[in-house]
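Q: What does the assembled structure look like for these inputs?
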Amino acid sequence: MITFENVTKRYTVSTDPALADVSIDVGRGDFAFLIGTSGSGKSTMLQLMTRQITASRGAILVAGRDLRTLPDRHVPQLRRDIGVVFQDFRLLENKTVTQNVAFALQVLGTKRHRIKQMVPEILELVSLDGLAKRRPHELSGGEQQRVAIARAMVKKPQILLADEPTGNLDPDTSTEIVKVLERINKTGTTVVVATHDERIVDLFRKRVIELHNGKLVRDEQLGSYIAEPEPGVRRRGRLVN
Ligand SMILES: Nc1ncnc2c1ncn2[C@@H]1O[C@H](COP(=O)(O)OP(=O)(O)OP(=O)(O)O)[C@@H](O)[C@H]1O
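A:
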């Protein structure tokens, strides 16, 4: 669903690349955490996937499209296949929950009767059905993030990208949000979550893709936040089998 082949991204010629020779393959229906310290290249990777920026070198394939050759006029179509959520929710403050979600469908040109039908369905998916008439300031952070996820999911994208989705949330609420993402993933959507949140990575034990200074340093199924040492390597004085 998302393939990077030897991708390098340089923002300026004089500095080190933000992403250096990265190759990954995220299949349909996968769930991956993208981790790494600040500045390691996580946001750069997400922005390359949506073609907000283009690679300096290498090939990127997303939902069957080669982003090197995709004409600009086809980029909106690509973005219909990709839902994105952010740390800061980015909701429309003067609109209710229903209106925030409906607005995302209106801009796609969806007919009014379809919007009326689809919005309650999607609110149910993120367990927000009781809060449809509230405005963002009347919601908790976790509820606001659910609205943002609902809004990203209305177009039924094949891929959901989340950039630090639990960054503003307390631990219990963060767990609930990742459970929502997991539920969406179980419906077949490919989910990639860029995060610094060590606790959720260790709790959910999904695939972990780790960057360091723009380089891919780990790609592990059922990974934890801190890489497990190789067998035979000493860790805190104990030999790991
Ligand atoms: N528009 C830009 N112009 C120049 N350099 C940039 C630009 N965006 C990012 N960079 C640089 O590219 C590198 C990777 O940044 P990126 O934002 O992808 O990291 P990140 O892992 O997402 O960090 P964070 O966790 O802090 O969001 C950093 O050195 C950053 O300074």
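Residues 43 and 71 are 23 Å apart (CA to CA).
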